Amino acid sequence: MNSAPSTSTWISGYLEQQRALLSDLPVDAIVSLIKALRQAARNGTTIFLAGNGGNAASAAHFATDLGKGASDVWPARFRVVCLADHVAWLTALANDYSYEDVFVRQLMNFGRPGDILLSSSVSGNSPNLVKAAEWARANGLKTISMVGGRNGRLAEISDEVILIKDIHYGRVEDAQMTIFHLAAYAFMEPAAGVADAP
């Protein structure tokens, strides 16, 4: 006799854990992220986004939400670049140097003091993200990282950290996408109070 839980039981358990994780998101850290993005828009500085795999897709999604949706309603448009979107450049850098260099070498071309590097990772230890964050800090960029419960090297070297207290890749990535949506819709919905905040 099969004693494994049914699919519906597994789904219910997954959703219960996801609800608990979302209810425990660090609100103050998300507010700090939104303030940093608002200041970047006002100053005309660039927001660079980086991530691997699912996080690369989430970063591209956020770049779209911020670059189009938020920019269409916010007084200052967002200069936002997803470093995972340049396929030809990424593959050239990975092929000619190493995969660890795919983000940092783009930053070497575009990054300026006062810009923001926003990285998202579940492990917090992706070598290409760590290398990019180290370069960014050394060159005057503000570093903000979203990481899972293992923290990793990114949490140690970033100026600001948004910690999602789980190590399950699906749940952490879901939570990170929720944070991206909060950060974008804060500028699109007047009820968020971003326009009036100091």
Strand order of the biggest β-sheet: 2-1-3-4-5
First-to-last CA distance: 63 Å
Helix proportion? 55-70%
CATH third-level topology: Rossmann fold
CATH superfamily: Glucose-6-phosphate isomerase like protein, domain 1
Any guess at the CATH architecture? 3-Layer(aba) Sandwich
What is the overall pLDDT average? 94
What is the domain tally?
Answer: 1
| Dominant shape | globular
Q: How does the major sheet shape up?
A: 5 strands, parallel
Summarize the structure.
55% of the residues lie in helices and 12% in strands. By secondary structure, it is an alpha/beta fold.
Model description:
This protein is α/β, with parallel strands linked by helices and 198 residues long. The protein has one domain (25-190): Rossmann fold. 55% of the residues lie in helices and 12% in strands. It is built from 8 helices and 5 strands; from the N terminus they run ααβαβααβαβαβα. The protein has helices spanning 7-23, 27-43, 54-73, 87-96, 104-110, 127-138, 152-157, 169-188; strands at residues 46-50, 79-82, 116-120, 142-147, 160-163. A 5-stranded parallel sheet has the order 2-1-3-4-5, sandwiched between helices. The longest helix has 20 residues, at 54-73. It starts with 6 loop residues before the first helix and ends in a 10-residue tail after the last helix. The mean pLDDT is 94.
